[in-house]
Design a protein that fits this description.
single chain, three-stranded antiparallel β-sheet, 4 helices, 3 strands
Amino acid sequence: MKQILIICALALCVAAPKTATAQSHCYVDYKAKRSDGGSLQLHYGVMKLNSAACASATNRARAVSGRISAGGWALLRVMSTFDDGGLQQRRGNAGRYYLKY
């Protein structure tokens, strides 16, 4: 019995750090548009979302749309969802819209 308790305790110690470091956010890249008196503007951006927004494609699109609309932008589409590892490769393409909204 004592050995079973020790094994369970060790298993919890191994699993706990993974649970504690589980990401509470994700990142998305997206395309947006806006029209200023006839001229069409487009931009590509990268945004950080909380875990609730990351949960589904609908939630991601709703979160992105809500944030960019403050700048007069309309979401065309959410391109992809990724973690911290995908940030640097997108930084150059996003330019001033890298983590802006």
